[in-house]
Each structure stands twice: as structure tokens, then as C-alpha cells.
Write a structure and sequence with these properties.
There is one protein chain. This protein has four helices and six strands. It is an alpha+beta fold and about 140 residues long. The protein has one domain: Pnp Oxidase, Chain A (Roll). Strands 1-2-3-6-5-4 form a six-stranded antiparallel barrel. It is globular, with a radius of gyration of 14 Å. The chain starts with a helix and ends with a strand.
Length: about 140
């Protein structure tokens, strides 16, 4: 994990889910995921787009890189994960959103966080969206 991500994770946990810097005011979530090949647990901080009813959307932008982020492949292989939101930690199931629903959600994402449009313009791939649904 990068030092940058570790600093965000530490700040998130020390401040009940709030962070400063470039993510100040953004709704953050910590994703605990299992490596598809390694089986190693990892944690990544991401911006989330809550939908209500125990569901939220996360974005596999990788800052506009040419390939999907490793965590995306890990969630596809192991969709039952744990997240941290604020001071709460709970299980969710991750599912990729596709088609017209993905396109509509993408418009919401870029209207709330225009920086994602910049990432879209940097890459030839379709940036994936995943819905995390709280496990019963």
C-alpha cells in the first residue's frame, strides 16, 4: 500500500471517517478486500456515492490509468467484503453496475465529483462502477 493511502486510512480512523487534503468533505469509505491471487487482505480508501437503503457506489477510476485498479479484480473474485464508514464496520456484497444503469449513475458521479470526468478523458476504458449492498 502506498504511504499516501496509509495516511488517508490513518486519518479516517482517527477522525471518525473524515479526512482533509484533497478529499476534505468527500464521503469516504475504507474497503477491505482479499487479493484474488494472493489471498492477502488489503484496505483501500475510496470516495463513495451513497444511495441509501444500505447501498453505495464506488468508482474504479485508478485516476484514469489504462487498466482497472487491482482492487476491482479482487472484488469481482471475492465480492463479500468488509467496509468501514465513519466509525462503523460491516459486511457488504459488491456487484458491478453495467449498461444504462451504469451510465445514469456515472452522470451522478461526475456531477457530484467532476474530477472523475478528467479520469474518464485520460483512458480508453469504461470506468467501472460497483454497488456495495449491506449484507443482511
Amino acid at each position: 500500500m502506498s504511504d499516501f493511502n496509509q495516511q488517508i486510512i490513518d486519518e479516517f480512523r482517527a477522525n471518525e471517517g473524515r479526512v482533509g487534503g484533497p478529499f476534505a468533505g468527500a464521503p469516504m469509505i475504507l474497503i477491505h478486500h482479499i487479493g484474488a491471487k494472493s489471498g492477502t487482505e488489503r484496505v483501500i480508501p475510496l470516495v463513495q456515492f451513497p444511495e441509501g437503503d444500505g447501498r453505495t457506489i464506488i468508482v474504479g477510476s485508478a485516476a484514469g490509468a489504462p487498466t482497472h485498479p487491482a482492487w476491482f479484480h479482487n472484488l469481482k473474485a471475492n465480492p463479500k467484503i468488509v467496509v468501514e464508514v465513519g466509525t462503523e464496520k460491516y459486511e457488504v456484497v459488491a456487484e458491478e453496475v453495467t449498461g444504462a444503469e451504469r451510465d445514469a449513475l456515472w452522470e451522478r458521479v461526475v456531477s457530484e465529483a467532476p474530477g472523475f470526468r478528467d479520469y474518464e478523458e485520460k483512458t480508453d476504458r469504461t470506468i467501472p462502477l460497483l454497488r456495495l449492498t449491506r449484507a443482511a
